[in-house]
TrEMBL record:
PANTHER family: HEPARAN SULFATE GLUCOSAMINE 3-O-SULFOTRANSFERASE 5, HEPARAN SULFATE SULFOTRANSFERASE. The keyword Protein transport does not apply. The keyword Thylakoid does not apply. Keywords: Disulfide bond, Glycoprotein, Golgi apparatus, Membrane, Signal-anchor, Transferase, Transmembrane, Transmembrane helix. The active site is at 100 (for sulfotransferase activity). It comes from Coregonus suidteri. The chain crosses the membrane at residues 12-29. GO terms for molecular function: [heparan sulfate]-glucosamine 3-sulfotransferase activity. This is Sulfotransferase. 3'-phosphoadenylyl sulfate binds at residues 100-104, 183, 191, 293, 309-313. Disulfide bonds join 294-304. Its EC number is 2.8.2.-.
Length: 346
């Protein structure tokens, strides 16, 4: 009797063991098949298109500051250029003016963005007949190396006031984005004068006072033949550009605000250029000694604008300042109306 019970128990254990082994083998086979299955939504597709600026790997951003810096110094090899898929692209945005409005500061600050590369020098392709005759390939070769996803930006303030430029840029790219940075017109005119005055003094040359340049001695009216005054009549120049480009392709930057509170202005430009927001308070710090904001690219690399920025302006006769402001007022009102942006200019 006992022998029969032991035999029955062994038989049950055998059946249970067989079932357990069979289940285990099924699970192993199932896991193997799952490994071979493609996920319904791969990681790559969930991250979005691979070339969007916000998906740039950190290593690529480091190359932007490292490898591209070596390229600007001429130290990178053709093999590095090929290996990292670097290109020289025509600009997709241009800072066209205004002279003494803050074009250099704007360009340097935008270069904080990892998706932006800048042409370091003013190229003067579209406003210089000799350069323009060299052709578009010459212009492209003046552009910095970049990764394909990045936006190249150049700035030449003379573009804004040169008659031939709008048509020439339109022929290159009719959908290009155009940035104009402006300051209060009288302040900008005095700043313009101050830069020229400094250049004259370096050469030990004399120069007329601002009042004599800005006011016609015969009529006692504003001298519109004086270039510093003409440049500040923003609406006259903008109307010429609007013959070729719709107003939606322009973005007006407040140059006075860029000095005192730059981040909001830079965020507006990011949106205009369809860039993800990347520039933050971390990238901008106020230098009390210089009286301007400086740039922080990372924990080791900071940069302040050249010492020539922020020159001290000469004292100007208050009656001349008042006359100029009264002269510019109707032009300013029209500029507000065209651009849709209002400034607190007197």
């Amino acid at each position: 009797m006992l022998f029969k019970q032991q035999a029955l128990l062994r038989q049950k254990l055998f059946v249970l063991g067989s079932l357990a082994i069979g289940s285990l083998l099924y699970l192993v086979a199932r896991v193997g098949s799952l490994d071979r299955l493609q996920p319904i939504c791969p990681i790559e597709s969930r991250l979005g298109p691979p070339h969007l600026p916000e998906q740039i790997p950190l290593r690529t951003l480091q190359y932007k500051r490292g490898l591209l810096h070596e390229l600007r110094k001429g130290n990178a090899t053709k093999e590095q250029i090929r290996l990292h898929n670097l290109v020289q692209l025509l600009p997709r945005a241009i800072i066209i003016g205004v002279r003494k409005g803050g074009t250099r500061a704007l360009l340097e600050m935008l270069n904080l963005h990892p998706a932006v590369v800048k042409a370091s020098q003013e190229i003067h392709f579209f406003d210089n007949d000799q350069n323009y005759a060299r052709g578009i390939d010459w212009y492209r070769e003046k552009m910095p190396f970049s990764f394909p996803h990045q936006i190249t930006i150049e700035k030449s303030p003379a573009y804004f006031i040169t008659e031939e430029v709008p048509e020439r840029i339109f022929k290159m790219n009719s959908s290009i984005k155009l940035l104009i940075i402006v300051r209060e017109p009288t302040t900008r005119a005095v700043s313009d004068y101050t830069q020229v005055l400094e250049g004259k003094e370096r050469k030990n040359k004399t120069y007329h006072k601002f009042e004599k340049m800005a006011i016609d001695g015969n009529t006692c009216e504003v001298n519109t033949k004086y270039k510093a005054v003409r440049t500040s009549i923003y609406t006259k120049h903008l109307e010429r550009w609007l013959k070729y480009f719709p107003v939606e392709q322009f973005h007006i930057v407040d140059g006075d605000r860029l000095i005192t509170d730059p981040l909001p202005e830079l965020q507006l430009v990011e949106r205009f250029l369809n860039l993800p927001s990347r520039i933050s308070h971390y990238n901008l710090y106020f230098n009390a000694t210089r009286g301007f904001y400086c740039l922080r690219f990372n924990i080791v690399f900071n940069k302040c604008l050249a010492g020539s920025k922020g020159r001290i302006h000469p004292e100007v006769d208050p009656s001349v300042v008042a006359k100029l402001r009264k002269f510019f007022h109707p032009f300013n009102q029209k500029f507000y109306q065209i651009t849709g942006r209002t400034f607190n200019w007197p």
